[in-house]
C-alpha cells in the first residue's frame, strides 16, 4: 500500500492540535447510531473447524500497569497510573489478518455490519484518484462514507484495489470481532491485558519500545503519519495506509504493531470515571460505545497523539473504518 496516491477531495482545512484536544472524536468517527434501527444483531457463530494458523505469545501474569500519570488527553481517562492484578494469558503476536478473517467467513458465511448496512468509513487519502463523490463526516471531513466499502472491498466496489491478505483486516466492527473471537476460540482483551501486553515487560513507558518519540525524518518504530495531517502524508515509514500485521520491530513479548497501524478493539465498554462536567460533556451520547487502544496509521503528535499505550478511543459497536482492527487473547495454555 506504500504507493497509493494521497487524494485531496473535499477542500477541508487542515486540522489543528487544539481542535483535537477539545473534540475527542477526531481520531475515529462513529456511526453514533445504526443507520437502520431495525438492523439485526450479528448472529452467534460456532467454534471453527478449519485449521487456521495463528501465532501467539504467552504473557506472564502479575501486576499490570494501566494508564499514566502524564496524560495527554485527561478527558479520555488516560490517568492516573494504576495497577491491576491479572492472570497469565496468550495473545496473538499480530492483529488478525484479512486471510484469517476470510477463512472465518468462508466457513461460517458470516456477514459483517458494513455489509449489512451497505457502507463503511474510509479515510479520504486512501481513495484512488477519480473516485466518485462521497459524503463527508461533518466533524471530521477527511472521513468519507463509501457505499459498498467493507473488508472485501476496502475502498468501495468500483476500486481495483483489494485488501492485502497479510495486513490487518479492517472495516470490521466490534460486533464482527466478537463473532470472529467465538469462532477462533478466543476473546477480545481487557484494557489491562492489552496494556500489559503492549508494554512488553518494560514497565511505565509511553511506547512499546520505551520513551523515544517517533519523528518525521529518521526514527520510524511504528506505522503512523508523517507530514501535515490531514493534507500530506510523506509515508517516510513506507506506508500510507496499513502495513503488514507482522511488520516493524516487535516489543519485548514478541508482539507486532501494538501502537500504530490499526486501532485494536477491546472487550470493554468505554468509560471515564469522573464527576467533572467537562468529562461528561466530552463523552455525551457515547452510551454503549466500545474501548479501543493503540492508535493507527493516521496518528501524529501534532494532531492526534494517540499512538501511546495509555491512549484511549471509543466507537459504537457497529462502527467500521479503514483503520480499526483487533487481536485476540486466549487461555495461557493455548500456546
Which helices and strands occur, and which strands form pairs?
Elements: H1 17-22, E1 56-59, E2 62-66, E3 82-86, E4 89-92, H2 98-108, H3 113-117, E5 119-123, E6 135-136, E7 143-147, H4 174-184, H5 191-199, E8 227-228, E9 232-233, E10 263-269, H6 277-282, E11 290-293, E12 313-315, E13 324-325, E14 329-331
Parallel strand pairs: 10-13
Antiparallel strand pairs: 1-4, 2-3, 4-14, 5-7, 6-7, 8-9, 10-11, 11-12
State the CATH class of the domain at 17-42 and 96-177 and 207-326.
Alpha Beta
Helix share of residues?
A: 10-25%
Portion in beta strands:
15-25%
- Shape summary: globular
Largest sheet: 4 strands, mixed
CATH superfamily of the domain at 17-42 and 96-177 and 207-326: paralog of FGE (formylglycine-generating enzyme)
Assign the CATH architecture of the domain at 17-42 and 96-177 and 207-326: Alpha-Beta Complex
The strands making up the biggest β-sheet line up spatially as 12-11-10-13
Please give the radius of gyration in angstroms.
18 Å
Structural commentary:
The chain is an alpha+beta fold and 335 residues long. The chain has a domain at 17-42 and 96-177 and 207-326: paralog of FGE (formylglycine-generating enzyme). The chain has 6 helices and 14 strands. The strands form 5 sheets. It has a 4-stranded mixed sheet. A 3-stranded antiparallel sheet has the order 1-4-14, covered by helices on one side. Strands 5-7-6 form a 3-stranded antiparallel sheet. The longest helix is centred in the first third of the chain and has 11 residues, at 98-108. The protein starts with 16 loop residues before the first helix and ends with a strand. Residues 1-25 and 33-40 have low confidence and may be disordered.
